[in-house]
Design brief:
The chain is α+β, with helices and mostly antiparallel strands. The protein is built from 19 helices and 12 strands.
């Protein structure tokens, strides 16, 4: 067996990844009609509320069945189902609400995110930023803190993920250290300095709840309270691991194409409900602004540009097992993906969000940004002027806004993001900006956008492209100025 790599975040593999251009790089995106993508990015509260109510209702129902079955053999399957919903299905709810895409209302996303975070014993702020890093540098060794199955993964290490008798205690110890202010270097490498303080009070909150459940169990001399709070994270984790293994296990490391390191698997309706459609995992990684309930439709739009999806879960696991056995002997082995289609235009393809203006085409100090009729309300398009990139948005009331083209956090093209009211959401990490002021209004984005005043001349949008700190927008009532 060949020795494995050092998967520690910030370890010796991290500078190698940076030198290879794998850090915060631009990833492959298949072509998709911009208007269709905008439709798929629309969020609502109803579908997520129904799914969340069903999940919590099943959790409460099986919890009640377990309670009335105490002292009988029926309590075992009842608690098994309760644990799977608690420590397993809670993972996808944590995930979607962490992205802020499940509900339209931010507070609803936050409530479910914090609840699910506790169920999984994940510190909310720590894991929010860990997941930002996961989407930035997916399966890049030395950078991604969420590589669950490093190479080579032995049967024992895999079993420890499905029954986390070691991993969960390690998380509890880490939480205790953070409660004492002992923040580890890995957390400091991806959590912003001004957010580190949250790790301490969140850890104390977890400790208080878990201590209460433990004290109750000791006082009543029964393990039952801990079977409802705390232990389900361990005995229900098998379902989380069951889904998680299909995401990236056995696929390539250190690539900039999610088709090579992420897997989509066709699953039945029950599994899709428990997993919140995250079986469409390639599509989610490429377009994280699309809510989970729109992923099946997104798959239909882009599937011809992706690797073929695994036809079912059994097929996916068979391929994973075969690959991991090979990697146990040769960690450099990768699952072949020779069948990847080449998008129109060759190798790397990105969403075409509009027209590029002629570089340097300007008159009277004004640059031509394209026709005044584009984009449509609620849309955006990318504008390249020379070596610089901008984004032009039209708000629902017709207001045109020109901003810098790349997100101030992850450098993603903002024109590919979702426009929601007066805000645009970054297509890479779901950070948001107020398009009227440029202010960052949702993390991980913290630095405001530069805005540029625009005018309409002879049916064209023009701008001097000189940033101004105040809001810059063109109201729809403004008349064209003849040149």
């Amino acid at each position: 067996m060949v020795a494995g790599r050092d998967y520690r975040v910030g370890g010796p593999e991290a500078p190698r990844a940076a030198a290879a251009g794998l850090v915060e790089a631009e990833w492959f995106r298949p072509p998709i009609d911009p208007e269709r993508l905008r439709q798929l990015q629309v969020r609502g509260n109803a579908r997520a509320a129904v799914d969340t109510a069903a999940w919590l209702g099943l959790l409460a129902g099986f919890g009640y069945l377990a309670f009335i079955s105490l002292g009988t053999w029926w309590a075992i399957p009842a608690f098994a189902a309760y644990g799977a919903l608690y420590g397993g299905a809670g993972d996808s709810r944590w995930h979607e609400c962490g992205h802020g895409t499940a509900f339209k209302a931010k507070w609803l996303n936050d409530v479910v995110y914090y609840l699910a975070s506790f169920m999984l014993l994940r510190q909310p702020t720590l894991w929010r930023w860990s997941h930002v890093r996961h989407h930035t540098d997916t399966i890049v060794v030395g950078r991604d803190a969420e590589i669950i199955f490093p190479r080579p993964s032995s049967p024992l290490s895999v079993a420890q993920v499905f029954l986390p008798v070691l991993n969960v205690p390690r998380m509890v110890v880490r939480t205790a250290k953070h409660a004492l202010g002992r923040i580890d270097d890995e957390a400091r490498s991806f959590v912003p300095a001004d957010e580190l303080g949250k790790l301490r009070w969140e850890s104390w909150a977890y400790i208080a709840v878990l201590s209460g459940a433990t004290a109750w169990s000791v006082a009543a001399w029964t393990i039952v309270p801990l079977l409802y709070v705390g232990l389900p994270t361990i005995y229900g984790a098998w379902l989380m691991a069951f889904f998680a293994m299909t995401q990236h296990a056995g696929l390539q490391e250190d690539v900039l194409d999610h088709r090579l390191n992420t897997r989509t698997v066709y699953m039945n309706p029950v599994l899709r409900f428990l997993y919140s459609n995250m079986n469409y995992h390639v599509e989610h990684h490429i377009f994280p602004t699309v809510p989970y309930y729109a992923l099946p439709a997104l798959h239909q739009e882009v599937r011809h540009h992706l690797a073929p999806a695994a036809p079912n879960t059994w097929s996916a696991y068979r391929d994973i097992a075969t690959t991991m056995r090979r990697q146990w002997r040769d960690p450099s082995y990768d699952t072949p993906r020779d069948e990847l289609p080449t998008p129109p235009g060759g190798g790397r393809a990105f969403v075409n969000t509009g027209h590029n203006v002629w570089a340097g085409d300007h008159h009277d100090g004004m640059f031509d940004l394209g026709p005044a009729g584009e984009p449509a309300p609620g849309g955006g398009r990318r504008v390249d002027v020379g070596d610089d990139t901008y984004a032009l948005f039209r708000l629902d009331d017709g207001t045109l806004v020109c901003s810098q083209g790349r997100c101030t956090h992850g450098q993603a093209h903002l024109a590919e993001g979702a426009v929601m009211g007066d805000e645009v959401e970054c297509p890479k990490h779901n950070g948001r900006f107020d398009l009227r002021s440029g202010q960052a209004v949702r993390r991980p984005a913290t630095v405001p956008l530069a805005l540029y005043p625009v005018e309409i001349r002879n049916g064209r949008v023009v701008s001097a492209l000189q940033a101004q700190p105040a809001p810059s927008a063109l109201q729809p009532q403004t008349k064209s100025v003849p040149t």
